């Protein structure tokens, strides 16, 4: 399908032999960074000095862990909307309306 639509798109005077040299969806090879042995490509600071944080790092830490904390709290307090809970509540209401007991009580046998 792609080849036929490309042939139709060619100008009338263009020879079809030229079509074989056209490369579709091609690109250069991905760039490869040589490994340096440094963590994240950063040189370790000299002894007695601390690593200087970049301005975006604190925003990322607070945003990532804050979102996880808020998500955990919201998940913990999420209302129970399962079908089993609804069905148990509905069955209890219907059995009470008919005058039946909904809890199992073993017989005296």
From TrEMBL:
Cited InterPro entries: NADH_UbQ_OxRdtase_ESSS_su
Keyword Transmembrane among record annotations: yes
Protein keywords: Electron transport, Membrane, Mitochondrion, Mitochondrion inner membrane, Respiratory chain, Transit peptide, Transmembrane, Transmembrane helix, Transport
Ranges that cross the membrane: 59-77
Subcellular location: Mitochondrion inner membrane
Keyword Nucleus: no
A GO CC term assigned to this protein in UniProt: mitochondrial inner membrane
Similarity annotation: Belongs to the complex I NDUFB11 subunit family.
Entry function: Accessory subunit of the mitochondrial membrane respiratory chain NADH dehydrogenase (Complex I), that is believed not to be involved in catalysis. Complex I functions in the transfer of electrons from NADH to the respiratory chain. The immediate electron acceptor for the enzyme is believed to be ubiquinone.
Description of how the protein assembles with itself and partners: Complex I is composed of 45 different subunits. Interacts with BCAP31.
Name of this chain's protein: NADH dehydrogenase [ubiquinone] 1 beta subcomplex subunit 11, mitochondrial
């Amino acid at each position: 399908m792609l080849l036929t639509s490309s042939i139709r798109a060619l100008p009338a005077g263009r020879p079809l032999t030229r079509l074989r040299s056209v490369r579709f969806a091609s690109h250069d090879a991905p760039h490869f960074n040589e490994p340096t042995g440094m963590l994240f490509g950063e040189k370790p600071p000299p002894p007695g000095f601390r690593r200087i944080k970049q301005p975006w790092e604190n925003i990322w830490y607070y945003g990532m862990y804050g979102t996880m904390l808020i998500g955990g709290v919201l998940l913990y307090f999420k209302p129970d909307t399962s079908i089993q809970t609804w069905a148990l509540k509905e069955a209890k209401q219907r059995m009470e309306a008919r005058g039946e007991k909904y809890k199992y009580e073993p017989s005296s046998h």
